[in-house]
């Protein structure tokens, strides 16, 4: 009796079997749907309107997405821990108006100092959110809804009817949104650096990986010795820092800042993170996906405007994308839980 020789793992048969598994892993990427949707949207719009991808058109797309990308990166950290921060628009507004105030009241102030002050103010406001959530043990949705109005009220009281315009800032500061490197606006390059740093933190550090564990099951995370309160506080603090950075860049990007700056922006930021594959229930997602979600949502607005589609449909499409992302995430969670139960039953 003879037996068929066993092939070593490095043979062609093993290589062929590895291909479907790699393809399956690619198809399971949470960022894949938003990437495909973005490519399809840009392709269709360019066919209808060839000027959409002109050099100036691409620059405008990147500039429109930059602020939301930075905010979505910070929001992803918070949502992954099974929380949410609705105050980021108000934080941005306070910092943006504060930036204009600094340039007017302190002539000649170095731009680097303005960035540091803006990020420190954002850190303070983010720390307040983090402390209230972790110490008071009140849901973040309630806390940040309250601070949204508090921070907005402070900005209204501070700004009143005052507005600062592009002429009130140094030319070098305004140039951050004008000058480009290899076709990328400088503020967009700052956003890319932010995304890379946060992505490395989430994937390459223990503290970053702890955020996923907390979002998946906070009680289990505590049992494993993870300092849940400290990690959640740092997530809110970092989110505040990035909102402060976005506020300074907002003052560079737009012609005026005032009491209403940033109003309603928090909804777009949460939508970008969710559409980008960050699970609203916590525990999964990536900052790269959140950035892609921000780029998709801002591109939708630009594309539908270029196609002369009514603004109502723009908002309706964003709503459909949010619902689709939540439903898909829920279906994936149910399937994963079912496979886990089947696996455990077989092992028994």
UniProtKB/TrEMBL annotation:
One Pfam family name is BPD_transp_2
Q: Where in the cell is it found?
A: Cell membrane
Q: How does it sit in the membrane?
A: Multi-pass membrane protein
Cross-referenced InterPro entries, in alphabetical order? Answer: ABC_transp_permease (IPR001851)
Keyword entries, A-Z:
Cell inner membrane, Cell membrane, Membrane, Transmembrane, Transmembrane helix, Transport
Main location as per UniProt: membrane
TM annotation in the entry: 32-54, 61-80, 100-124, 131-151, 182-203, 232-251, 263-281, 288-306, 312-332
Q: Which PANTHER family match?
A: ABC TRANSPORTER PERMEASE PROTEIN YPHD-RELATED-RELATED (PTHR32196), AUTOINDUCER 2 IMPORT SYSTEM PERMEASE PROTEIN LSRC (PTHR32196:SF29)
Q: What does this protein do?
A: Part of the ABC transporter complex LsrABCD involved in autoinducer 2 (AI-2) import. Probably responsible for the translocation of the substrate across the membrane.
Listed under subunit, the entry gives: The complex is composed of two ATP-binding proteins (LsrA), two transmembrane proteins (LsrC and LsrD) and a solute-binding protein (LsrB).
The entry's protein name is Autoinducer 2 import system permease protein LsrC
Originating species: Cryobacterium breve
Its organism's taxonomic lineage begins at: Bacteria, Bacillati, Actinomycetota, Actinomycetes, Micrococcales
């Amino acid at each position: 009796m003879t037996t068929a020789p066993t092939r070593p793992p490095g043979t062609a048969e093993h290589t062929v079997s590895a291909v479907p598994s790699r393809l399956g892993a690619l198809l399971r990427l949470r960022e894949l749907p938003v990437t495909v949707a973005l490519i399809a949207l840009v392709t269709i719009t360019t066919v209808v309107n060839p000027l959409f991808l002109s050099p100036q058109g691409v620059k405008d797309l990147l500039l429109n997405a930059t602020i939301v990308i930075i905010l979505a990166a910070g929001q992803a950290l918070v949502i992954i821990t099974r929380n949410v921060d609705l105050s980021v628009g108000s934080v941005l507004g306070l910092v943006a108006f504060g930036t204009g105030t600094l340039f007017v009241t302190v002539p000649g102030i170095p731009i680097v100092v303005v960035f540091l002050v803006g990020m420190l103010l954002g850190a303070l406001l983010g720390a307040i959110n983090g402390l209230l959530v972790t110490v008071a043990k009140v849901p973040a949705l309630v806390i940040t809804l309250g601070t949204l109005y508090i921070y907005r009220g402070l900005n209204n009281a501070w700004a009143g009817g005052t507005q600062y315009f592009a002429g009130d800032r140094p030319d070098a500061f305004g140039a951050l949104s004008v000058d480009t490197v290899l076709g990328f606006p400088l503020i967009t390059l700052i956003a890319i650096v932010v995304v890379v740093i946060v992505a490395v933190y989430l994937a390459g550090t223990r503290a970053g990986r702890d955020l996923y564990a907390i979002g998946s099951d906070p009680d289990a995370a505590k049992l494993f010795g993870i300092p849940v309160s400290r990690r959640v506080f740092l997530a809110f603090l970092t989110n505040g820092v990035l909102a402060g950075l976005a506020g300074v860049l907002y003052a560079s990007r737009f012609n005026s800042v005032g009491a209403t700056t940033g109003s309603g922006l928090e909804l777009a930021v949460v939508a970008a993170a969710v559409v980008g594959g960050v699970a609203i229930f916590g525990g999964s997602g990536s900052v790269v996906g959140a950035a892609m979600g921000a780029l998709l949502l801002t591109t939708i607005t630009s594309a539908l405007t270029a196609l002369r589609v009514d603004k109502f449909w723009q908002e309706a499409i964003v709503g459909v994308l949010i619902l689709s992302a939540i439903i898909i995430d829920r279906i994936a969670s149910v399937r994963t839980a079912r496979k886990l139960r089947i696996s455990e039953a077989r092992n028994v």
